[in-house]
Amino acid sequence: MELKIKAVSPKVGGEIPLPYYASAGAAAMDLHACVDGPVEVAPRALVSIPTGVAIALPSADYVALVFARSGLGIKHGISLSNGVGVIDSDYRGEIRVGLTNLSDVPYTVQPGDRIAQLMVTPVVRPALVQVEELDETQRGTGGFGSTGK
């Protein structure tokens, strides 16, 4: 498949890279901060960082998902403010990344920093069938922690 991408900032493709796969086995491409200068993410704060790009998914058969970068989370406590960003097939605006700082130390996002990952994946839209009962399984209705540690 092809993913159409549009630079919505003149910086993209020059000082700010287009999204790219960092390795041959990468499942998602890196998104970069398209900001004019450093942006501080204070402890427990929320910020919205522009990426300078917009995309056009080819159809409703696909969705783009924005995930956190594990290194930012593990090393600095930087996470996505909404868990996972969902970019629907009909959205054409700039991709922005909501970040939050879960640590007690301020974190600074620099222009061009890799701030998130973008994955494109197929969508399954099942037909809903309302039933009175669901089939039985060994687990049944066991919820959080019901299968062990």
Walkthrough of the structure:
With 149 residues, the protein is mostly beta strands. The chain has one domain: Deoxyuridine 5'-Triphosphate Nucleotidohydrolase, Chain A (Distorted Sandwich). The chain is built from 1 helix and 11 strands; from the N terminus they run E-E-E-E-E-E-H-E-E-E-E-E. It has one helix at 70-76; strands at residues 4-7, 29-32, 39-41, 46-50, 53-56, 62-67, 78-80, 85-87, 96-101, 107-109, 114-122. The strands form 4 sheets. The protein has a 4-stranded antiparallel β-sheet with strand order 2-11-6-8, with no helix packed on it. The chain has a 3-stranded antiparallel β-sheet with strand order 4-9-7. The chain is globular, with a radius of gyration of 19 Å. The protein starts with a strand and ends in a 27-residue tail after the last strand. The mean pLDDT is 95.
Sum up the structure in keywords.
4-stranded antiparallel beta sheet, 149 residues, mainly beta, single chain, 1 helix, 3-stranded antiparallel beta sheet, Deoxyuridine 5'-Triphosphate Nucleotidohydrolase, Chain A
Q: Supply the CATH superfamily name.
A: Deoxyuridine triphosphatase (dUTPase)
Distance between the termini: 41 Å
Assign the structural class, choosing from mainly alpha, mainly beta, alpha/beta, alpha+beta, or little secondary structure: mainly beta
Taken in chain order, the helices and strands follow as: EEEEEEHEEEEE
Give the integer mean of the pLDDT values: 95
Sheet-strand content, in percent, reads 25-35%
Q: What count of structural domains?
A: 1
CATH domain class name: Mainly Beta
Fraction in helix: under 10%
CATH architecture: Distorted Sandwich
Q: Strand order across the biggest sheet? A: 2-11-6-8
Low-confidence sequence ranges:
none
Q: Whole-number radius of gyration?
A: 19 Å
For the biggest sheet, the summary is: 4 strands, antiparallel
Global geometry: globular
Please report the number of helical segments.
1
* CATH topology term: Deoxyuridine 5'-Triphosphate Nucleotidohydrolase, Chain A
The beta-strand count equals 11
